[in-house]
Amino acid sequence: MSGVRTVSSSSANAKSYDSIMKILLVGDSGVGKSCLLVRFVEDKFSPSFITTIGIDFKIKTVDINGKKVKLQLWDTAGQERFRTITTAYYRGAMGIILVYDVTDERTFSNIKQWFSTVNQHANDEAQLLLVGNKSDMDTRAVSTDQGEALAKELGIPFVEASAKDDTNVNDIFFLLAKLIQEKIDSEKLVGNTGRDGSVNVGAAGNNSKSNCC
Ligand SMILES: Nc1nc2c(ncn2[C@@H]2O[C@H](COP(=O)(O)OP(=O)(O)OP(=O)(O)O)[C@@H](O)[C@H]2O)c(=O)[nH]1
């Protein structure tokens, strides 16, 4: 994708980036959230399924329009029993990726529920993105048209991807980071980095830096 370039996939020190973006992945258990993250950050794929317990995170620094942006990527557990823990992390997220599995219709129909949970717990200004994963598989149950139609209905962008064969995985994260950056540049979203590297996010109108009336 033009204007976007990977800088490093290791933990960056405090002086090696211009800004931080907190991004969350949500969706049913088994749709491939962890695999998308591992593919993006480590360029690896494992066919074995190790379910996420609670929450996990990885870091990757990318170049967006000449600025070094540290992506703080939070991988939430899809299992219902962790829902109380995971929803606590929605607040402050600048970007949220809703993932379903194109071979599993149930994970697709559950996206509306994920969308509503996100709207309930996340900041109004968070940028959302719908991802249909496992596009490499022949046993498809959800068509690309269905994915596009749902994204249109929800008013969010859509990407089909495969963590396994590395289709569109970089595009997911770079597209989201670019959209977040555009919101920051247009002052719809404000991110402040705390001393510990944590990010506080708010709508620009709620932030003291905004030129509010
Ligand atoms: N064929 C194929 N399999 C995939 C793909 N992505 C993930 N998988 C497989 O799907 C299974 C679940 O992947 P995970 O990434 O652990 O799923 P998750 O969404 O993180 O699951 P939870 O941690 O329980 O929420 C694993 O066996 C993966 O190997 C893909 O793009 N293609």
UniProtKB/TrEMBL annotation:
MF terms in GO: GTP binding; GTPase activity
Species the sequence originates in: Lachancea thermotolerans (strain ATCC 56472 / CBS 6340 / NRRL Y-8284)
Protein name (Swiss-Prot/TrEMBL): Ras-related protein SEC4
Taxonomic lineage of the native organism: Eukaryota, Fungi, Dikarya, Ascomycota, Saccharomycotina
Keywords: Cell membrane, Cytoplasmic vesicle, Exocytosis, GTP-binding, Lipoprotein, Membrane, Nucleotide-binding, Prenylation, Protein transport, Transport
GO cellular component: plasma membrane; transport vesicle membrane
SUPFAM superfamilies for this protein: P-loop containing nucleoside triphosphate hydrolases
Domain of life: Eukaryota
SMART domains for this protein: ARF, RAB, RAN, RAS, RHO
Main localisation: membrane
InterPro entries: P-loop_NTPase (IPR027417), Small_GTP-bd (IPR005225), Small_GTPase (IPR001806), Small_GTPase_Rab (IPR050305)
